[in-house]
Amino acid sequence: MPEYPGSGRIPGRSRRVSGLFRRFSGIPRLQSRRRTLQTRSLPGSFGNHQSRGGSGGPGPAEGRAFYIRAQLKRTNSQALCRVEQVEYVTTFQVLLLVTGAFFAGFVDSIAGGGGIITLPLFLSVGIPPHLALGTNKLQASFGSLTASLRYRHSGLISFRKLKTGIVFTLAGAAAGTAAIQSIPADFLNMVLPVLLLGVFLYTLFSPRMGELDVEARIPVFRFYLLFGLAIGFYDGFFGPGTGSFWTIALATLLGMNLKRATATTKVMNFTSNIVSLTVFILGGKVLFLLGILMGIGQLSGAWLGTHLVVKNGTRFVRTIFLIVVAATIANLVVRRFL
């Protein structure tokens, strides 16, 4: 394998997965043309970071991941599509990420919040944030699709009845993704923990909420017009806590029990995920092979989680929901103030 100037070499104890995350060549109609070639060392959380230095570039460092940034140009248009990939990831790190995806899929299929497991893992192995976000959308889509199909098979949801919600959620997610450059994320980081705290307290002190289906408080079309656009916009722009907002809204305003609300939430999550994932793919921010490997873990965890939801009652869903909301609040507060 050729070495690039300044890239250094991964020590023997940190096994190199040869070509595992090279530039993905399967994107249709893209012809490789290196416009820039830049190698960086990214600090990871594994091994001892002992750098011996070198001429011009970073020296060898155990537990570091290296990636190459290249630009590709479409052969039939003027648009540039940047593809950024992690060049070296150890076998242990891949296994860690796939295992984390399994647990994330399990939790997410029950109460949402799988991202609070997978995103820190991405960053801990040295994957840049923009690639972590894009790849997280890819692997999470496996879990939300699996959960949606499993809930449909069990009779908890009907795609035909959800088509209005899907359309408005799709539109909201597209608008949120388009507006991602104009709304300050710091504002959402401050407001979101307060909103989620309200969701947590309302659920905690409403022990009978979502036990049975009750009459809807507002018409279904009006509900999806408001919340499909609003929550879809939020998920396309930011994302954390989306499942919690959907579940509490469906249970309180449409009168669904928590099992049906959770099942419906997975369909809406998958809808908004697809929009964001498309944007990340066009921007070259997805590690395809890693995302697919983690997707296998996601769908396995999602299958197990949906099985437990179908088998157990709403009290089980409520307990997991409260735990996930509390963990999401803690995660956001730590990221904001520490």
Automatic annotation (TrEMBL):
Its main location: membrane. It comes from the Bacteria. Coiled coil: none annotated. Keywords: Cell membrane, Membrane, Transmembrane, Transmembrane helix, Transport. Residues 38-60 are annotated as: Disordered. It is found in: Cell membrane. One of its GO terms (cellular component) is plasma membrane. It is a multi-pass membrane protein. The chain crosses the membrane at residues 162-181, 187-205, 217-234, 240-258, 270-296, 316-334. InterPro entries: TM_pro_TauE-like, TSUP. Belongs to the 4-toluene sulfonate uptake permease (TSUP) (TC 2.A.102) family. This is Probable membrane transporter protein. It comes from Marispirochaeta aestuarii.
